[in-house]
C-alpha cells in the first residue's frame, strides 16, 4: 500500500524544511511527498528545489489552499493520502501506525489529533475511535471533527469523490468542507492520541489568530454552499451552515455598528463583504425553495 503526503505551502520557508524532513524520516517503506507551493514570494522554492528527486514538487501561481489541495491530489499516486500544512510536522512513526489502522479496519478516512507541544514524543499506545455518522449528516446533524488539516488522511477512492473542490481565496473553503464530505461519504476512525505537531505562530492563517472571528462565518457559508451544491443528501446540513454563518456575520456587523455607529466596510474591512453576504442570503433562499419543492 503506497502512501502520499501532500504538503501545501505558502510563504512558510522558515518551517518548510522541518516539515519535509519530518516526513522523509518516517519508517514506512513506500511513500511519496508531494509539495505544492502556492505562489510563495519568500525562499520556499529554493528550499523545495534543494530536495531534488526526494520529493515531487508542484510550483503554481497563488490560488488559495483549496487550489493547493486540488493540485497535490492530481500529482499524487498513493492509495492513502495525507494532508500536511507546511508549518506543521508529523511525529515519528505516524505513517506506519496509521497504515496499520487502515489495514485492520474497513475505513475510508482516518483523522489524528494534534499536539501544539513540539517536544511531545510519539504516544506509546493509540486510542482509536471508529466513526460512522453518515446518517447523522444526512439528517443535517453536525458531528464533532476537531482535527485540523495536518491530521487528515483518506483513501484515494474516497478523496476522488471530494477533490477537485471549488477554489476559494485564503482558507475560506478548505479542510472543513473536506472533513464533512468525508464523514458523509464513508466510515472512518479518529485517533485521540496525537501523531502530528501543529505549530501555533503569528503567521497562522486561522488557528489562534484574531482573524478567526471574522473568518469563521465566511467559512461556514462557503462550506455550507459547497456541500449543498455537491451532495444532494447534504441540503439540510448546508442550509444550517449557511444560516449559521449569516447569523454570525449579522451579529458581527451589529457589534461593529454599535462600536462605530456605522457598518461601512463590514467586519472584514471593505464593501465586498456586504456583497458576499447578500449573495449568500440569495443562494440560501434558492436552496430553501428547492428543498420545499
UniProtKB/TrEMBL annotation:
Keywords, ordered alphabetically: Transferase
Keyword Plastid: no
UniProt-listed InterPro entries: Glyco_trans_2-like (IPR001173), Glycosyltransf_2 (IPR050834), Nucleotide-diphossugar_trans (IPR029044)
MF terms in GO: transferase activity
Residue ranges occupied by any Glycosyltransferase 2-like domain in the UniProt entry: 4-162
Domain of life: Bacteria
SUPFAM superfamilies: Nucleotide-diphospho-sugar transferases
Protein name (record): Glycosyltransferase family 2 protein
Amino acid at each position: 500500500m503506497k502512501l502520499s503526503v501532500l504538503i501545501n505551502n505558502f510563504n512558510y520557508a522558515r518551517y518548510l524544511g522541518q516539515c519535509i524532513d519530518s516526513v522523509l524520516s518516517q519508517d514506512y517503506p513506500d511513500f511519496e511527498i508531494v509539495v505544492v507551493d502556492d505562489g510563495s514570494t519568500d525562499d520556499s522554492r529554493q528550499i523545495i528545489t534543494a530536495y531534488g528527486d526526494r520529493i515531487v514538487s508542484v510550483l503554481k501561481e497563488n490560488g488559495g489552499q483549496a487550489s493547493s489541495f486540488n493540485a497535490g491530489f492530481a500529482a499524487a499516486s498513493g492509495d492513502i493520502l495525507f494532508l500536511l500544512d507546511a508549518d506543521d510536522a508529523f511525529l515519528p512513526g505516524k505513517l506506519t501506525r496509521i497504515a496499520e489502522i487502515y489495514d485492520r479496519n474497513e475505513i475510508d478516512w482516518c483523522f489524528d489529533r494534534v499536539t501544539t507541544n513540539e517536544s511531545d514524543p510519539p504516544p506509546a499506545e493509540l486510542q482509536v475511535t471508529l466513526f460512522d455518522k453518515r446518517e447523522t449528516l444526512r439528517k443535517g446533524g453536525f458531528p464533532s471533527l476537531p482535527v485540523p488539516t495536518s491530521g487528515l488522511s483518506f483513501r484515494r477512492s474516497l478523496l476522488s469523490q471530494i477533490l477537485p473542490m471549488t477554489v476559494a481565496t485564503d482558507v475560506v473553503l478548505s479542510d472543513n468542507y473536506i472533513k464533512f464530505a468525508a464523514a458523509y461519504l464513508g466510515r472512518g476512525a479518529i485517533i485521540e492520541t496525537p501523531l502530528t505537531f501543529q505549530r501555533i505562530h503569528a503567521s497562522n492563517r486561522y488557528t489562534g489568530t484574531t482573524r478567526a472571528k471574522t473568518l469563521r462565518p465566511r467559512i461556514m457559508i462557503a462550506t455550507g454552499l459547497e456541500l449543498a451544491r455537491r451532495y444532494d443528501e447534504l441540503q439540510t446540513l448546508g442550509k444550517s451552515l449557511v444560516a449559521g454563518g449569516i447569523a454570525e456575520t449579522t451579529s458581527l456587523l451589529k457589534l461593529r455598528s454599535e462600536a462605530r455607529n456605522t457598518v461601512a466596510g463590514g467586519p472584514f474591512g471593505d464593501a465586498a463583504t456586504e456583497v458576499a453576504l447578500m449573495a449568500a442570503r440569495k443562494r440560501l433562499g434558492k436552496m430553501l425553495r428547492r428543498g420545499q419543492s
